Fold each of these.
Amino acid sequence: MTRCDRISAEGWLGDDDDSRAREHLEQCADCREAREAYRRIADGFVALGAEHELPGDAEARLWAAVATQRDRRRWRWPVWLGIVSAMVAAAAVLFLLLRSGGSERDPAAQRVLALAVLPPDGQAGDDPVRNGQPAVGDRLRITAPADDSADPAHFALRVYRNERELLVQCPGDPACVRHGSSLVVLLPIDALGVYTALWLDAGEPIAPSSSSLAQDLADAVSRGAEYQLREVEVR
Amino acid sequence: MLQTKTTTSNASLDETALLALIERDDPDKALREIVQRYGTAVYRYIRQMVGSDDLADDVWQTTLLQVHRDLHRFAGKSSLRSWVYGIARHRSLDAIKSRGRRRRRFVLDQDAMDEADDMPAADERLSDRQLVGALEGCLEELDPQTRTVLLLRFEQGFSYNEIATVCRMRSDALRARVSRAMPKLRACIEGKGVL
């Protein structure tokens, strides 16, 4: 490293104080040239940053990822707690079934968005929920809460495939059927992909869908909407 | 339980108010402020670190997700900005490592590079864009640790003390690293016929 190389865009980087640096620079053309080169490099760094812009949809995708992360974390229980919870839940279900004569509890009554995979139409015995990997030909059953008293413009149920294809939008789509205080969508799985159900509930009318899950979710979040997400991957 | 969100405020909060949000355990609102304040700058830093748009996008998402997840762990020992950049630095280095040793050459401005190959006369001033193209290519040739220090210092305008917090190194060691790197950078850029 030469003496002049010790001059950076900021002046001396060695032990020399500024006055000695100045004195040397006045006498040394090479060092003046070096200092000018480093100044231009430093300017280049500033211009470098401006070359790249954050993608326009990056923030929307971030919020979708935050929602998914939160959703997964909410359901990620310790194994032992899961076993205990499952046993308690099984006992509770058995108790309720015995008391109610076998009627199924409506998930919408608990204001929970529920997503289940059903076998193809005609193969379902007593409408059993499929266990194991869902496949093309199966059906999705999505149940969402929908208060009778609520303004229909203030809640929405949307189903997307691969985050960018809007398959169903309720209310409004004929696939949405109202059962008491719940909204039910029965949707055939006709292609591989990730199917995501998004339920929104807001204090104001919900904006029309952009057909992008990330964008719709970001928009709803910015307006203070409550939301729930459920997804299933068909592969 | 339903997710309840609050509406966003257009006004940017100062760091004290932002810290208050974190202490109040309002990570969504805090993240919104962080994205508004540092989002673009962090993206540009990551972009220069990893060298591709797609990877930068992934690393930016991962970084901000981790910020959101770990906000409650932020102890206030450094500035919030330094903490966020520290996460961005780690995630960028992870991405570089997982990309392996396949060194992807920058082809940012082929015209600029073609002209650089022509070796213009010494007194010919090349455009800033050509300088940027050459600088970007030369930065890629430096090791990631040195690259991060230079980017934080000259692109992001961090002080050496702030970089010391982000990189967990002593500031005099950082100065020495910069003083060693700058002549290499200069030689590389001059080798491309720029400067």
Amino acid sequence: MPCWSCGTPSIPIPKEPDMSDDRNVIMTRLRDLMRRSGPMDFDWDTVQANSPIAALGFDSLTIMDLIYDIQQEFGVEFEAVDLAGLETAGALADFLLERQPAS
Amino acid sequence: MKVILHRIEYALLRLGLWWIDGVSAQRAARMAAVCGSIWYRLDASRRRTAQANIRRSGLCSDEAAVRETARRSFRHFGILAVESLKADTVFNETNWRDGVDWDIDPATQQLLDDPAAGLILVSGHFGNWELAARLLAYAKPVVAVARRMNNPLTDRALAARRDHQRLTLTPKRDANLARLLQVVKQGRILALLADQHARAGGMMIDFFGSPASTYTSPAMLHLVTGAPICFGYCLRLGPMRYAIRLDPPFVHRPTGRREVDKRIILEYLNTRLESAIRLAPDQYLWAHRRWR
């Protein structure tokens, strides 16, 4: 369709990368990883960005399993100790989002 | 009733400490060995456990040797308790290398000398693990994860004795993951004893040929921090004389197969502990129910 003001054909404008889309993708990947390393009787689909990690049923051993899985899945370099201080699933997603290589 | 028992236990401990402080290390160790022998005779349940474990390990060829190794193991445990308590009167900042035969792999020595390099040190209830942590703390600050005693009074009294500027004890139950990760990041030694039954949370790893539930935390800490893991032990050679051996650093890069990675590291650690125990089976704490 031509431009309504000048009549020249319109050029499709590339969509700005949406941070919230990326965050949602990371949240979905995190839910899958938590399902793999966390308690089996937990409904991982209910995990939201504001869910406190401490309330997800991880103990000191399974949280290390989760850290390992995150390191392997996301392939980004970070200190395990930096992850251990994060309080919510959303904070964890943001942490990983910041460290994603630019595409 | 429990409170009264704890107070009696505490009073006996204070009396014992007062006596230990007043006599020489040699005399205290001799008395501790006698106490260990008495304990062996009186505690039938632990005696049976120790004998069954030694039998299962296949280290002794006949029943007489099984009984003798078990008895000596109880004696050794008494000696190690007393010698650990006497350590401060014998070793200090200036003489801690004396009386100890140090055998440290050069690569491990480099890690000890580098203030920024963290290290995960793994051992078992073999030789004198308490003294090893105290002496190594002179080389590099140590944080040791230890089980708290049931009696809070004796726990506090003994913790105060063990307190050392460069050795920090973290009770197992309160061991916060972030704190443990910080230890390694800050270039300190994180010392773990990894040979107790780990219940349902452990991984079944062969120990002397029989599967035993094994704590996975040493392996996971290594995998997620990348800090080198090192097996070591402190063998008793005589009254207040020890040999401390530290293996070369062990590094296993994560492969993405978490359980396989854990198994590789834990099998390595169990094999190294078995080799150490074979040197002096009577210096191992056989009374613990490792196989259940």
Amino acid sequence: MSINLKPTELIRRKLDTGEFIFPNKNKCTGCKKCVLICPVYLWKMEKNKAVLSKDYKSKCFECSSCYQICEYDAIEFTFPKGGTGIAYKQG
Amino acid sequence: MAKVRKDFDLVVVGAGPGGSICAKVGAEKGLKVLLVERGETPGDKNASGCALSPKVFKDFSFMREMDIPKRVAKMATAHMIDENLIENSNISFSASRLGDYEEAREFLTINVYRGDLDPWLANLAIKAGAELKTSTLVKDLILEDGKICGVITENGKKIYSKIVIGADGAISIIAKKAGLRNKWRPDELVLLITYDFSADEKIIDDVIGDNAIHYWYSSAYPIGYSFFNKDGFHVGLGHYLSMFDKNPQVYLKRLLETDGIKRQIKLTNAKPREFQAHTLMFLKYFPNNVYNDGVMLVGDAAGFACPWEAEGVYYAMYSGKLAAEVAKESVDGNDFTKGKLKKYLTLCKNSPVGEEFEMADEIDILLKEVAFNPKSGWWVVPLISDFFFANFNVSEPHARTIDKYFERFPQIAYDILSNIPIKTQVAFLERYLKSQIKKSPINFLYKPIMDSTKDFRLKLIENILELIPKIMKGEKK
């Protein structure tokens, strides 16, 4: 048996979140920890710097792991605007 | 100096269990309370195992009237899975006669969804007289004359308040703005990723019944879980941010390939319904930075989650209640200084919230080296299986397999003793000795032993414990 699971489709969300993750290229050392940890693969490496997916606002689960794991404070995480972003029903 | 404007006595940021109980108790005590939530509905932003423990119902009697979908878990099962994802053995246990009160003897947990629980709790706060404002993100604190006197929302709106409660979760803006904490370290924060599956209530009743909590322990992934609710269940796993060596999804995929989980999904005819990712802290110390001038932190925002099992709702509710009590005293005495609010820390420390952190340090190493560590699966997984095989297999005369087991016993004991961190063993043994010496014929030793420094006692026990594997290793050769 194999269940086809698509995490980013299994969530209700309201767009119009505004920006809430702010990568800082100057501080990024290219350690790739954010790439490793993101459970929906929103980070990738470009020229030795971590780059956030352009459509992150419609895919991010707001878990903040990228911000938490970065030891160089190269990722700032705020929150989506009130009433927007993910909305769990069965949390 | 102009009279400072105060819209509220108490602004509570975050309508999770901690915030809602704080608002409820505050309002019941006659305070003017505003409860602010960034989600459209309370619970929108919260995910957890949400297995409510018996003490929630013992200490908060109104919880007995909770009328939301739930499943009572009377039994839990830990499955031991080998590196090929094959189940080796499992152990189940149920609520025990050792329980000190009725609920503890009756069930292990009551499983609910936060999407049901959080609105229900927030509604209790509203009924008590608190005002709830949803879809509102608090971005900052109002600082006037160096004092915190309210919050600023994302639209720049200022809400003045005598006291601010940060109940805004593990990634707390209030904690940061109040100068209490920047962020947790990657080795004290766990990322949990979970699929929720929907399933027919009746089928879950038939297939799972009240054995509604399952842990999956394996060398193939960090510890996994399946928690059954009324009409669905969570399957997921968690690990320290600092310890993931592959993307979490790689491990979650393996967990879902485990036979036992596949069977649970198949038998309940379950369909994936929601994906969740969230972080929570496992601290090895009691967090002291939970108050400042005009501000108190409760629940996850404070770092109050059980360091053994990550239960958070109870500690959030309890600290929320204590914060409201201290807030009431502060308002009555018109004193919102750090000196006054220190009482909140003292109350927390002397409550079940503080008590849960006893041995937090020793448990932290145990979790990191054994429970969460797939690398320890090689010796943990076969343990129980070996024991039952020796007693119940029918491949040869029973006495013979038992002899074989006893021959292997020193090796088993050696594996256990040499792999469980010495600090954890010492802590358990110290507690054991404390309770035993007290009632033994040598109880005259209790006082001198207790009067000796903790370091001395630990060193003594450590020396004895370190000898055991050495002796056993000698015996093995």
